[in-house]
Amino acid sequence: MQKEFAQLMSTFSMRASRETKLRFAYQVYDDDDDGKISREDLRRTMKTIVQDNMEEEFLEEVLDKVRSTPNSPPIQQPSP
Ligand SMILES: [Ca+2]
Q: Lower CB count within 10 Å: N or C terminus of the chain?
């Protein structure tokens, strides 16, 4: 457990490589483990963080903003 915590914290280090940070981001956000961070992955992660403390409409606005941010990870639209 201590080793895992140390590994987790090392990803926030300035010395951690970009690949290490990206790998960590995918572990956190890629909820369905398909190698892509989709809008639904982000929605599930945000719901876990904010629980019922954010209006659905505001959550959608935040998700829209993330999609339009340069250098953001590719976002996959959910299937209709
Ligand atoms: Ca995914």
A: C
- Domain containing residue 39: 2-67
pTM score: 0.60
Cα of 78 from ligand 1 centre, angstroms:
10
C-alpha 2 to ligand 1 mean position (Å):
28
Separation CA 7–CA 11 (nearest Å): 7
Average pLDDT, the chain: 79
**Ligand 1 centroid – CA 26 distance (Å):** 8
> What does the pLDDT look like over 19-48, one tens digit per residue?
888 888 788 888 888 888 888 888 898 898
Is residue 13 situated within a structural domain? yes
- Ligand 1 centroid from CA 38, angstroms: 5
